[in-house]
Amino acid sequence: MKRILAVLVILAVAVGSVFAGSKPETASIVLAQNKPEIDDVLKAYAAGWAERTGNNVTIKSCGGDSCELSVQLRADYAAGEMPDIFVINGIESYKEWEAIIADLSDQPWVSETSVAFKVDGKVVGQPVAVEGWGMAYNADMLAKAGVDPATLVDLDGYKAAFAKIDSMKAQLGIDSVVSMAASIGMGWVTADHNFNSLLANGLPYGDLSVVNALQAGNVDMDRLNQYADWVELLFKYADPAVLLTGDYDAQVGAFANQKAAFLHQGNWVDPNMAAANATFKMAFAPHGSLSTPTDGIFVAAPTWYVVNSESPNADVAKQFLNDLVFTSQGNDFIVNKAGSIPPFANIELSPSGQLSQSVQKWAAAGKIYSWDQYSFKDDWRIQVLRPIYNQFASGDVTKAEFVKLMADAFKNYKNF
């Protein structure tokens, strides 16, 4: 009997060894994200991860001036093709998909970050990065023009700097003072990022007083009028071609190729700067949306990866996210390939991009303002705000009309 049992044990071990040594069944997941500027490097990382794990990953990028991720996700859901991992940008985005967003509270990466997306005590989103923006400037060009970046803290400082640089365009070899986009397709530059100047500039981090007032239809007309002056200034000194019809590459390229002294974008353009071999000195200055000085830029986790709880491969999706945080390849992708500021304490790498380094300096000094634009519904920003900015940029409405359209939009927000 003992010999029979011994044989059975040996057979069981042998069979187990055969199965353990065989190639595991391959799973396939889809990740949908909204940063086309990292599409190539994310696909390259996903391909390497697939080789290492035996699980296939398809990357779908929807953003920039090509498409709206929120719209694409709705189409995917209707078609029964919802991604296994997708991106949300804030509470309104979360509310739309909360029925299928998995609880990630038990994931190993949670203890390594302070900027996870949390709802009712649950962790539901992994931060993609830490990002920031102010007004990016060509420090070498400003020095040549005799403009001190320390003066770029309010409306008057920017008015003086823009006027001086504009008078020296031929000498500086530039087409415009600022590279700014305001087409409908690039409306996230205006109705997301520039809009946040109205909401958060000059306020304590996380202060939602302006947001709450506007959503209730209570408009601080003095703050709104100052903001309109800021928007007018940017539009006035932009290249009309880039402003009205330029795509992402045209807007970012004008700055990278030293055809504009300023750029209205964030540190996510560092890979574009590297690709263009833009080696001039650059950094961020605060937005000048107020008549009073401000001393900070906008810094936060911009988006979060969430896992589709209805996915049959949810565990594989979670593994993909953990490997971003805990493998050398994942760390290399986040920092070196994507050029991002890592949102995880265990990652010791630092980005080499000058704009990312500028964000880190502002953050280290505690001089940061929050991102509050995503407190407003995506569809409202897209359908209501973007056309208002576009009409102002194209000259179809005056500044006074822009102010009225904005005020009316806030008064009607609760009915949207």
Tag the structure with descriptive keywords:
47% helix; 2 domains; 18 helices; D-Maltodextrin-Binding Protein, domain 2; alpha/beta; 416 residues; four-stranded mixed β-sheet; disordered N terminus
The fourth-level CATH homologous superfamily of the largest domain is: Periplasmic binding protein-like II
Question: Compute the gyration radius: what is it?
Answer: 24 Å
Largest beta sheet: strand ordering: 2-1-3-12-5-4
Q: Describe the main β-sheet briefly.
A: 6 strands, mixed
How many separate domains make up the residues? 2
CATH topology (fold) name of the largest domain: D-Maltodextrin-Binding Protein, domain 2
Describe this structure in words.
This protein has 2 domains: 28-130 and 301-345, Periplasmic binding protein-like II (D-Maltodextrin-Binding Protein, domain 2, 3-Layer(aba) Sandwich), CATH 3.40.190.10; 132-299 and 367-415, D-Maltodextrin-Binding Protein, domain 2. It contains 18 helices and 13 strands. The longest helix has 20 residues, at 2-21. The model is unreliable at 1-24 (pLDDT under 50). The protein is of the alpha/beta class and 416 residues long. It has helices spanning 2-21, 39-53, 69-78, 91-97, 139-145, 155-167, 169-172, 187-200, 209-215, 221-236, 240-245, 248-256, 270-275, 314-326, 328-337, 354-364, 378-393, 399-411, and strands spanning 28-33, 56-61, 85-88, 117-119, 122-127, 131-133, 135-138, 176-179, 260-263, 282-285, 297-300, 304-307, 368-369. A hairpin with a 2-residue loop joins β4 and β5. α10 crosses α18. It is 47% helix and 13% strand. The strands form 3 sheets. It has a 6-stranded mixed β-sheet.
